[in-house]
Amino acid sequence: MPWLARMKQLANPHHDLFDVLVVGGGPAGLTAAIWLGRYLRRVVVIDSGDPRNWETYGVNGFLGLPGIRPAELRARGRQECRELGVQLVDAVADNGHRIDDDHFVVSTEDGREFHGKRLLLAIGIRDIWPQIPGLDHIYGASAHVCPDCDGYQAQGRKVVVVGSGRKAVGLALNLTTWTNDLIICTNGEPPDLDRSEYCDKLDALNIPVLTERISRIDHHGSTIYSIEFEDGMCLDADKLFFAIGQQPADAFCTGLCSLFPFERDEEGSIVTDRHGHTSVLNVFAAGDITPGPQLAIKAAAEGAVAALSIHKSLVPESRKLTKLTT
Prior knowledge:
By secondary structure, the protein is of the alpha/beta class. The protein has helices spanning 3-11, 27-38, 70-83, 135-138, 147-150, 165-175, 196-204, 251-257, 296-314; strands at residues 17-23, 43-47, 87-90, 93-100, 103-108, 113-121, 125-127, 143-144, 159-163, 182-185, 209-210, 214-220, 223-229, 234-236, 239-243, 246-248, 283-285. The chain is built from nine helices and 17 strands. Strands 1, 2, 3, 4, 5, 6 and 17 form a seven-stranded mixed β-sheet that branches. A five-stranded parallel β-sheet has the order 8-15-9-10-11. It has a three-stranded antiparallel β-sheet with strand order 12-13-14. 39% of the residues are buried.
């Protein structure tokens, strides 16, 4: 053993060095862990148990599992991980640091530390909810954020888009794939339609914009039936989509970023190459925390791709062929 590595081991002889630390136990993190377990890697998945889609009624478009509930999908993934020897830790990862390029440490709120040779961030993002009484009762059944995931269920329905500016216009235009009965409500915010293109396209499609603040959502169980405004007006609705904003769920990642300047895009997502590698050596990312469509099946695919890359990065050179040169 090299002298420096031996000294590090002697300095901390009690830690258990995993091959891979996975932070986040959604489709990306669990899929990565399953693939890494199949590669016989020692893996730990640290998950807060508070997924973004906790109330969504179905994970749509996941091959062979139409409408599966998020909790069931996670439960199946966790069971498969256990069968492959993956360690599951239910805790909030709140900090981390790098000892060297092949040694990372993740600490949890309850004081535990986990050491690994590679780090995969599958922490996802958080949606910013509008402050509307009743929204929490219908989220996942009648209220949504993703037209790609839930637009199909809005076919021919009366749909209200809550938001303003480019985000709201873009969401409304996307939803015209399934319905022509659309209204944008800014919920008391300025409409921010500062480009003529926005008004021109909304007018051409007969999509009105209301600026009055919403006082509450009237619902029966998880089913919406009207939206009430502060001026007393009531608006019939079958579906609500909100386009307020999102932010990376990186309370943990912020700790890393103080040491590692991840490259990010304009939305704050962590930029990766096509193998899931971030701008920091041996740190990978997959799922909604990376740029692109926010689909469960895409997150799972990214988790698998990152797992393959992580495994290959751990294979010693003595077991690899030299690349051919032309």
